[in-house]
Amino acid sequence: MGLKCALDGPSGAGKSTIAKKIAQKLGFVYVDTGALYRSIGLYAVRNGAKTDSEEEILPLLKDISVELKYVDDVQRVFLNGEDVSDMIRTPEISMAASNVSAIPAVREFLLGLQRDIAEKNDIIMDGRDIGTVILPNAEVKVFLTATPEERARRRYDELVAKGQEVTYEDILKDINQRDYNDSNRKTAPLKKADDAVEIDTTKMSVDEVVDSIEELIDAAKRRDFKVIPAWRIRLYSILRVIAGAVFFLIFDIRYKGKENLPKSGSVILAGNHRTWFDPVLIAIRVKYISSYMAKAELFDVPVLRSIIKLVHGFPTRRNSADVSSLSRAEEFIRKGYNLTMFPEGTRSRDGKIGRARSGVAYIASKCGVPVYPVGISYKGHLCFRRKITVTFGEPISPEELKINNLTKTELRAAGERVMSRIAELVESNG
Ligand code: DC
Prior knowledge:
The chain is an alpha/beta fold. It has two domains: 4-224, P-loop containing nucleotide triphosphate hydrolases (Rossmann fold, 3-Layer(aba) Sandwich); 230-427, Glycerol-3-phosphate (1)-acyltransferase. The chain is 46% helix and 17% strand. The strands form three sheets. Strands 9-15-14-10-13-11-12 form a seven-stranded mixed sheet, sandwiched between helices. It has a five-stranded parallel sheet with strand order 2-6-1-7-8, sandwiched between helices. Strand 11 (290-295), helix 12 and strand 12 (313-316) form a beta-alpha-beta unit. It is elongated and about 80 Å long. The chain starts with a strand and ends with a helix. The relative contact order is 0.11. The protein binds 2'-deoxycytidine-5'-monophosphate.
């Protein structure tokens, strides 16, 4: 289960623009629930039904299937298999959606679908009753407003830009009518949840609103994730001790740089990567609980998957900027966990140090946490009583990574800085 952000408010308050931006920035999935009501409105209009008549709409529901799919990360809505995403944005369908949304059976019909979508992933869901009915336990609830005149102006500009012929007066009339419908219907009326934060966007820029909501999400992450349950800490300690005993028995392990061991959680441990023993070699010596970034393929192996998950391992896809993996990493760090990762993204069979991917620098700078380099060395193949040297280096502060705008060049240079520090440690191991 991920973090849920419920974004409610009247038509034209800027919900979808804001939600899309936040989703893109934070790697959340954006769910536009209005599109679901609009699809039902469209179906009703196409079938010549009176959109405010429960008697006429009810029999249609059994013939409707609505689905949200993501094409190139953009949400598209499918009505009985047909992509209707663009057709549902006309003033006629807006009003039809508002009418059908007042019918309790329609709301009931869409309730399960909305909750199912919210079940997985970090999501930001916009609508009218998300914070009050659909996701009453959402960690972040925002109620966006703006004056009707400002909302009408925004909608007018948007429709004109799309080439639709509309007048400002008609739009304002529509907005007032829909506000009235949405707020006065009996079932799930548009209403601010008691625990929602209200943001009046009339005089705010899009970026200002996005920043305010991002702050709320950050605060929720800190609030929610601060406490690591005691049983998990205990289990982790027990597994560490067992792994330590087994490893010391099998190998001849030396640890160097004790003075550089992290003195708290929420740091990144970054090592060179030769075998799957590496995360264990680091874990044995670092007493603070860590999460582990592991290649996605490992999660296809049933027993291994469970073990990795038990020690807070999460998958990363190596051939793309894996946004959800990066946000998992951030989430763990904000929870107070360390993050153990191997910046090269893959094992080096011959022991040579490769180039870092951008992940390590990105996470360090996004979370403002230091990177602790770790050099792991041994000669030849790992076999019984093989001498292994593991050296912990001085931490690299986020300032040393010199990242200001998260550009590719900055991330690459910072990644190189981390890898060269790891290389120095490997060399010092002899
Ligand atoms: O957000 P929108 O303008 O696309 O929504 C279209 C209509 O659907 C709106 O008039 C109210 C209704 N709606 C609703 O009742 N509940 C939701 N969660 C989303 C939309």
